[in-house]
Amino acid sequence: MERRDGPDDRPLFVNRDETETGSKGPFYLVYTDDAGATRWGYFCSNCETFDNAMDAMGRVQCNECSNVRKPDEWDAAHE
After folding, report:
1. Whole-model pTM?
2. What distance in Å separates the CA atoms of residue 6 and residue 48, rounded to the nearest whole number?
3. In 3D, which of 50, 49, 19, 12 has the Cα closest to residue 34?
4. DSSP of 9-68
5. How many angstroms separate the CA atoms of 2 and 49, rounded?
6. All structural domains of the chain with their residue ranges
7. 19-40, pLDDT tens digit by residue?
8. Can you give the pLDDT at residue 58?
9. How far apart are alpha carbons 31 and 25 in whole angstroms?
């Protein structure tokens, strides 16, 4: 795993082997430890930021470049 300084300069670990497909590039899973025991969030590969948000349906959106991961399940009524 790749160590990077996250928000507040805390060390975070980006696992480039665990990805979620995004509209502009993959999102990599991020952990708080190098063993991958505690998941923290996502890292946007398109603009290389931790500044992402996830909604209740599992959609991930980068707040910097608008890279989007579609939700696992969705109801067409919400479109």
Report:
1. 0.85
2. 11
3. 12
4. G-EEEEEEEEEE--SSSPEEEEESSTTS-SEEEEEETTTTB--EEE-TTS-EEETTT--E
5. 14
6. 2-71
7. 999 999 999 999 999 999 999 9
8. 86
9. 19
